[in-house]
Write a structure and sequence with these properties.
Layout: H1 10-13, H2 20-54, H3 56-59, E1 77-79, E2 86-88, E3 93-97, E4 100-104, H4 107-117
Antiparallel strand pairs: 1-2, 3-4
The protein binds zinc ion (ZN).
Zinc ion binds near residues 105, 106 and 109.
Length: about 120
Amino acid sequence: MKKPARRLPLNKEHPASAPRAALNLMGEFVGYLLDAIFALMMLRMLYGALRSFLAPRRANPGAGTSAPQPAAVGGQMVRDPECGMFVSTEVSHRLRKGGETLHFCSEDCLEKYRSRAA
Ligand SMILES: [Zn+2]
């Protein structure tokens, strides 16, 4: 990393109150400080850009939930034995078979399963 050449003209404002070396040191310190702040800002910007790039959905919560919403419907999530997807027992198409109840995502799946099992 290159040494920053920035130096505030402190020695003009305080003519003889402090030795020149100390003022130079202070100017250098302020330069480093400004550099550090600048670097931090750049890092924050980079981090923010990277985050929004890697997880664009998290940037605005609630807007991009494309997955099936298990929280929106009550009941239990059970697996449709025909197509394999999960469906809530609240909205499923049911088929009683023996002692258990099978849950299907659609009338279609239910019919397919029933015709195959018959
Ligand atoms: Zn299904």
